[in-house]
Amino acid sequence: MKDGSALKKPQAMMFDMDGTLFETETVLLPAYHNTFEILREEGLYHGDTPPDEIILSCLGMLLEDIWTRVIPGAEPRTVARANQLLLDLQVDGMKAGTSRLYPHVMETLTYLHDQGVRLFIASNGLEGYVKGVVEIHQMSSLLEGVYSAGEYQTASKVDLVRLLLDNHDITSAWMVGDRSSDVEAGVKNSQTVIGCNYADFGDTSELDGSDVIITSFDQLRRLYDEAQ
């Protein structure tokens, strides 16, 4: 990891959810398999469940783009049902206590909050899912805002981040995330990008263009302390 001495201390930090704060696969994969079981039972899908690697490679994408890749050519009613099932089953998994944040997430967010950094979520996920993670893992008191593509109907994370920055009069922020969409969102909004390289999915080349890459979430604290 590079040091943070070349970075400017931000007014705010914006965090992706899946693969950055939240160990998505702890609830995603069971929900994914159950979703296809129900779709088959309801006659909305025929055939084997697509491989786990496909859904994991889609994390960070907009939901409509995910289903285009997972079940190309599916009828709209199948996609709509799959959306609802996947959301409900993941929230059920979280409520059952099977989900996890990455190590050191809460301690690091608490430290940054105590330093006066304004903290936000910026995710391409569904509103109920993103807010469910925040609620169940008790992050609400640390966050000034939770932005999801599902709630704001943005076409890209670039647009979502622009909306967040404008709504909260933020001129200096760090975009913290693990996918190319996070890098693009930070760069195209002229903000610093901290790439996260500790999830087991995704291609590390997706983080090309990041100002700094971290391999553990708690390294963010050191970067902030060293920033000017």
Automatic annotation (TrEMBL):
This is Haloacid dehalogenase. It comes from Paenibacillus bovis. SUPFAM superfamilies: HAD-like. One of its GO terms (biological process) is DNA repair. It comes from the Bacteria. GO terms for molecular function: phosphoglycolate phosphatase activity. GO terms for cellular component: cytosol. It holds the Pfam family HAD_2. Transmembrane segments: none annotated. Gene3D superfamilies: HAD superfamily/HAD-like, Putative phosphatase, domain 2.
